[in-house]
Amino acid sequence: MSDLLPTSPLTSPVIKTGEPSLIQSTCAYCGVGCGVDIGVADGKATSLVGSAAHPSNYGRLCVKGSNLLNTIDLTGRLLSPEIAGEQVSWDKATDYVAEQFNDIIKKYGKDSVAFYVSGQLLTEDYYIANKLMKGYIGSGNIDTNSRLCMSSAVSAYKRAFGEDVVPCTYQDLEETDLLLLTGSNAAWTHPVLYQRIERAKKINPAMKVVVIDPRKTATCELADNFIQLKPGTDAAFFNGLLHFLSENQGLDTDYIAQHTEGFEQALTQATSWTVTKVAEFCQVSIEELTTVYQLFCSSEKAITFYSMGINQSSSGVDKCQTIINCHLASGKIGKAGSGPFSITGQPNAMGGREVGGLANQLAAHMDIDNPQHQDKVQRFWQSPTIANKQGAKAIDLFDKLASGEIKAVWIMATNPVVSLPNRAKITAALKKCELVVVSDCVEQNDTLAFADVKLPATPWLEKNGTVTNSERRISRQRNAVLPAGQAKHDWQIIQDVATKMGFSGFDFDDVSDVFKEHAQLTQFENDGERLLDLSGLSQLTAKEYNELAPIQWPVNDANPEGCARVYADGKFNTPSGKAKFIPVKPQLPLQKTSAEFPFVLNSGRLRDQWHTMTRTGKTNKLSKHTDKPYLYLHPTDAKALAVQNDDMLSITASTGQAIAHVKVDAKQRLGECFMPIHWNQNYASHGNVSDLYQSIVDPLSGQAESKQGAVALGKKTYKQYISVHTTSKITLSADFWVKSTTAYGDSYQVALDEPTIDALLLCQQISGLSGEWLTFIQDNQSYVVCLQAGKLAFLGYFSATWPEIEQSWLEHVFGSKTLEFATIQSLLLGISSDEFNQGKQVCSCYSVGEKTINEAIAQGCGSVEALGEKLQCGTKCGSCKPELASLISQYNADPIETAIVLAED
Ligand SMILES: Nc1nc2c(c(=O)[nH]1)N[C@H]1C(S)=C(S)[C@@H](COP(=O)(O)OP(=O)(O)OC[C@H]3O[C@@H](n4cnc5c(=O)[nH]c(N)nc54)[C@H](O)[C@@H]3O)O[C@H]1N2
Ligand SMILES: Nc1nc2c(c(=O)[nH]1)N[C@H]1C(S)=C(S)[C@@H](COP(=O)(O)OP(=O)(O)OC[C@H]3O[C@@H](n4cnc5c(=O)[nH]c(N)nc54)[C@H](O)[C@@H]3O)O[C@H]1N2
Ligand code: SF4
Ligand SMILES: [Mo]
């Protein structure tokens, strides 16, 4: 069968040092799963472009993907195993972990240990971790950061279809009449898909796009209609749509009768949701609602594209269910251009779902609490035992660490101290836990600070295996270079520990053997029970595996070349073969605002950063778009709090506190604010949003309510503000600081409650640099400069307000081989040259700033294309195109305001 499989033209299974080659792999970041072609020479990656042939991206890459090679240098890498901070051999480290796990299990039982893994593991890593925990240790205690990401979507698909199957494909996005994007900022988070949508809309101007979000995001640039709803009210919106369909001939009664069950109950529950009631509940106008409902009703085809604004909720499963209900009721599913499309975030969230990496799954889409499935999986594995009940889901898992019920945890490829809600609770749990093992690629992050054992894993570019993207497409992530230092592949590390624990099912010689076993398990006694069937890949040779081209599952006799469209026949995986409607009573968020905590706190992603910044934070290319964790706030709220742009706010919740600069932003709703998820203690003293969320979860999925917190805001002032720019690492202790990677080294914003008396001494102490130190003091300001061999090495500006300094000028000055006397004088007087001032960076590929763009718009560039022609911005990866369009609309709306801003700059 495997000779029917398409093979990839650009592969190099064996790394040959010295010989230039081209290796096709998959991007390390989001669930779009773009193909990349990596040029390799002398054992190093030398070039990277989007793979023209890859069906996810057809050659395109977003700004994160195109900067992959800027994040792979070895600085900050964890390169050897450590126990209690001491470097040890692999043998010693894996002996220790195996022994400790065995001892703890012997003393306290199998449920006293746990793994907390990640959608950033490859399928093979994930498979083997799950096999060890569920088939050999015999506990369900393996959960993953995907719990925080798409577990609500998984539960809803499973309830409705009987199996966790995404019923759409990317091409549907291009073939649809109507695209509802809800709870998704795809322009920033799934940029290549967004570009595909943009192109489809250009080709078919009749296609409509609707965005539903409490914030007016970059994604709205494509929207024909925007519903700026009250946070947490989506279930009411979709119940209202179901009711509207039934009142306006929008139902597909044949489809409902033949292929579904439970419609009447769902409709009864939705019936009270009239347009008037929904408008009031969601705080949107009746006209806007009716227009969108009418669009859905009259469109032959429609897709609802949903992500974290839906899933990360205490009623996330129900919200997904109301979306699925509308598609089933209108028959907009199982056909081109239609369906409820949950978009996954991480590169391999889907692979994790396939191998059963969540605590409430078994493996290969089999159920953990089904005795027949337990028996099947155990017989296939020939394992000594099998988990027969659900394990602890992420939040519970950390609660059990805190209570002492779980005594050992192995964390792989995730940074829970930053990403789980209620940071104080997570750190307390890790402190309490007897044994914390962490496999990571970096030597330092907020979670590694609690590790008893650190295990160095190979990162993207060094690791080798498969990932599955949001449309069920399996792609190879190929290793292009050899592992650095002593780093090992995650699957090998788990294999070594499992073998040392005394288990025999882990003697894989090659990663392809792991994949093959996984594929065989999907086939094992399947008989059409589960759509996840990789039987067509179950006999791959190592060579065929190496050459495997991207392919969508199922892959079996009926679909030897994979399958794009599922459920076309209306047959689902429930016992009756019919899809289920689920009646839903809309619930509001459980974290409620109060007099004490009056603001709703929303959180999410920025365009150029990835999660906890362990990779994207390393390059100045991706740090310039936004260099600090702003709190975005409506102008009226900013006025009431007496704050302006760049003032400081303390953000207090019942769980903790954060401090951030203010960004006044009319795109927020009144009384609501937004903070990015990325900053953590490696980059900021008080920038971690997880301090501000309670760990409240959806009762079915266990997914945390990470979008609607309740906080109090208060203006925060300091006695002294310092801007530090340095070519060397510094050691700093300050009341507030935030760090950003620059072209010359690091820049810091520092604030102190008590002003420094001796600015020069402080700079010398924190930098440890020797060189020619110069200082100038005037009024309350101090300027400190250090030159080394005539070159600028360090700069510190001290002031009673934030010192203003032009970053692009600094880059120029730090890059200069010798500094003229006049420049040194300017540095010491704190007068930066405006000549280089471009404003905030918008286009990261060509380093084009907002000021330059606004000037070009004022000179007549009236379209994104015209800007591209003049300035090149937006012409490479295209990630900034929505922002370019937004600047043009802002200018068109208010050219005078733009002119004033330009003049002030
Ligand atoms: N640049 C970048 N891209 C990424 C990532 C990254 O870190 N950086 N991470 C990847 C991962 S793992 C994920 S999960 C995805 C996430 O992708 P998205 O879900 O698109 O990203 P978020 O910014 O978390 O949230 C999406 C939107 O939900 C909105 N929202 C909040 N509350 C509500 C609500 O009640 N209703 C509705 N309708 N909307 C609401 C927010 O305002 C936000 O605009 O991104 C992936 N892509
Ligand atoms: N408030 C709030 N909280 C959120 C969210 C939100 O929107 N709001 N979003 C949630 C979502 S959707 C997600 S996905 C999570 C993400 O949160 P995390 O998963 O905690 O974030 P990452 O920074 O991706 O952590 C990955 C870690 O694995 C390491 N790593 C990278 N590659 C490998 C590898 O191949 N092997 C090993 N062993 N290690 C590797 C990295 O260095 C890094 O330390 O955050 C969640 N938390
Ligand atoms: S959209 Fe960007 S981050 Fe996502 S896979 Fe493609 S290149 Fe990578
Ligand atoms: Mo995610």
CATH hierarchy, class of the largest domain: Alpha Beta
Beta-strand content: 15-25%
The count of domains is 6
Distinct small-molecule ligands in the complex: ligand MGD, iron/sulfur cluster, molybdenum atom
Structural class: alpha/beta
Residues in helices, as a percent range? 25-40%
- Across the major sheet, the strand order is 5-4-16-15-14-6-7
Family: Belongs to the prokaryotic molybdopterin-containing oxidoreductase family. NasA/NapA/NarB subfamily.
EC number: 1.7.99.4
Protein name: Nitrate reductase
Keywords: 4Fe-4S, Iron, Iron-sulfur, Metal-binding, Molybdenum, Nitrate assimilation, Oxidoreductase
Structural description of this entry:
This protein is an alpha/beta fold. The chain folds into 6 domains: 4-71, ADC-like domains (N-terminal domain of TfIIb, Single Sheet); 82-149 and 354-532, Rossmann fold (3-Layer(aba) Sandwich), CATH 3.40.50.740; 151-342, Dimethylsulfoxide Reductase, domain 2 (3-Layer(aba) Sandwich), CATH 3.40.228.10; 599-716, Beta Barrel (Barwin-like endoglucanases), CATH 2.40.40.20; 720-836, no CATH class; 841-904, Arc Repressor Mutant, subunit A, CATH 1.10.10.1100. 32% of the residues lie in helices and 19% in strands. It is built from 31 helices and 34 strands. The strands form 8 sheets. Strands 5-4-16-15-14-6-7 form a 7-stranded mixed β-sheet, sandwiched between helices. A hairpin with a 4-residue loop joins strand 23 and strand 24 (657-664). Helix 4 packs across helix 14 and helix 8 crosses helix 12. The chain is globular and about 80 Å long. The termini are far apart. The relative contact order is 0.12. Iron/sulfur cluster is lined by residues 27, 29-30, 32-34, 57, 61-62, 64-65, 190-192. Molybdenum atom (MO) binds at residues 149, 345-346.
